[in-house]
Amino acid sequence: MLQVIAETFAPLLSLFLFILGAGFFSTLLALVMTLNGASPIMIGALTGVFYAGLVSGSFRIERFITRVGHIRAFSAFSSTLAITCLLHGLFYNPWFWMVLRFIAGFASAGLFVVIESWLLCKSTTVNRGQVLALYMITFYAGQSLGQFFLNLGDPQTMLLFSITSMLCSLSIIPLSMTHVRSPQYDEPSTLSFKKLISISASGVLGCFISGLIMGSTYGLMPSFLSQAFHSNAAVAKYMFAIIIGGMLLQYPVGKLSDIFERRLVLIVISSAAILTSLAILLINHQIGWLFFLLMVCFGGLTFTLYPISITQACEALDTTDLVAGTQSLLLMYSIGAMVGPLIAPAFIEFFGERGLFVYFITVCAMAIPILILRKAQKPALPQEENFVSMPQTSPILFELDPRGEENGEVN
User: Which keywords does UniProt give here (predicted)?
Assistant: First the structure.
């Protein structure tokens, strides 16, 4: 394990610094737009545009990285992000911000591909699970801790934008101080989307539902918290609660999915998310400890939908189809993450500030009958795949999945 840490320390430190800044930047933008009176649909659209850039970059950036090299590519993408962060602070214009967020999404995809392909190069069938675990810890630690930067200054000044820009620039240093070898990629298989749906409709649906929820959580939750508590510190605290809940419940919920049929676990998680959202709607938000606990539960439940859906789909995929299949599943998540922030504002307009949780309840309630129907129609396959937790970043990460390499090592 110590050898794995030593070999992956530099790229993981670069990832941590990048996520530390980027993790709270989306919260910051939503907060600034709320303070400037932007409509929920405009705030949601900003999130959707970012995911559009992320999808575009995830599937088109590898050739560029191969041509210029990992370190140069990482430096270019980090510098691009640093510039876009400063431009957000210098000019407040939602339409201009949308252009910047698309560029930021594209550049973020490039950063993820660089880091993940570096880790893929360093991993083997023996330690790939450990490498992925370190990746997950680094990712969620940076994302959760970064929320507290919101407490350092007024969101409407340049300070917080400058901090994000500096962290993006700092992330270049660790990776640039180490030697990086480009990984050797196998020729990917082709798996039609129609075939994927026929193989695992539940996995496809779960990824789409996860995108609908997570895109709206990252894009609109800061606005909800700002209106509910009128405090930047409260926004940071409860966004931290959601993300840390997602990190803490990954393993126990994943362990349950290794014991019980995964479609049943998806049904239970969706039902529990409905109950948690109802509780958030009904309780007095001023009971701080209870609201914090419910937000931890909400994050823990919703963050596990995606990896369990991926794992459920992997049960029916051949090893050679794993990367191609999971790329399609990532695309379904990203489509949901683009569409969700555009639909959720309609619920907010109709139900008021708590309409966001009415939206979450509606999404989960629509998914449950379909999952039950699929469970009844198609018998469960033997659960040969163990749950592996993963964030929604780039398709390269799926090659780190220890389920996708049964013969030989990746170098």
Answer: Membrane, Transmembrane, Transmembrane helix
* All residues at 6 or more sequence positions from 260 whose CB lies less than 8 Å from its CB, including other chains: none
Rounded to an integer, what distance in angstroms lies between the CA atom of residue 396 and that of residue 66?
13
How many Å apart are CA 96 and CA 99, to the nearest integer? Answer: 5
**The Cα angle at residue 114 between residues 109 and 117, in degrees rounded to 5:** 115
Residue at 139 is within a domain? yes
Confidence (pLDDT) at 126: 61
Q: How many domains does the chain have?
A: 2
Report, as an integer, the average pLDDT of 96-121.
85
Whether 259 and 137 map to the same domain: the answer is no
Last residue of a domain, one of 182, 212, 241: 182
Name the helix (H) or strand (E) containing 203: helix 201-229
Q: Are 264 and 383 in contact (CB under 8 A)?
A: no
Residue 48: pLDDT above 80? yes
Kindly give, in sequence order, each residue whose CB lies less than 8 Å from that of residue 247, ignoring residues fewer than 6 positions away: 136, 137, 140, 141, 144, 303
The percent of residues above 90 in pLDDT, for the chain, comes to: 32
- Percentage with pLDDT > 70 across the chain: 80
Q: What is the DSSP string of 330-372?
A: HHHHHHHHHHHHHHHHHHHHHH-TTHHHHHHHHHHHHHHHHHH
